[in-house]
């Protein structure tokens, strides 16, 4: 019997490599570092060397209707699945889609997330500067327009 959804199981991103539970998202919100692009905010945290990188997705209704939200999630998962071997060390990523992410093409999504991947390659494993109020932010990301 073929897998549900018609995908190839050898190319799937298994659930063991995803952040799925609310307490895991909350823990990332508390301890993770943040990096922002025009259409995505990424919260990331290093994992022990023996672990495998994991991905969590937050795609809210502001992003678009259900079809658009699912398309954004598929594109992010595909980028993560194909680029995971490029990570020098394992990370937990929580990618938060922002307004406008649904209008991006697959290539534009990949290009924007490639910037995040390059940032992670340069990111220190521990440390970082804390801003007043306990918020941690990377200088490269800049302020978030509201």
Short synopsis of the structure:
The protein is built from three helices and four strands; from the N terminus they run αβββαβα. The chain is of the alpha+beta class and 146 residues long.
Describe this structure in words.
- The protein is built from three helices and four strands.
- The chain is globular and about 40 Å long.
- Mean pLDDT is 79; it is low at 127-146.
- With 146 residues, it is α+β, with helices and mostly antiparallel strands.
- It has a four-stranded mixed beta sheet, with helices on both faces.
- Helix 2 (66-83) crosses helix 3.
- The chain has a single domain (17-123), classed as Ribosomal Protein S5, domain 2, CATH 3.30.230.
What is the element layout, followed by pairings?
Layout lengths: L21 H10 L1 E4 L3 E7 L7 E6 L6 H18 L7 E7 L8 H17 L24
Parallel strand pairs: 3-4
Antiparallel strand pairs: 1-2, 2-4
The tally of structural domains comes to 1
* Total of helices: 3
Backbone shape: globular
Helix/strand structural class:
alpha+beta
Helix content: 25-40%
Keywords:
disordered C terminus, 31% helix, 4 strands, alpha+beta, 146 residues, Ribosomal Protein S5, domain 2, 4-stranded mixed sheet
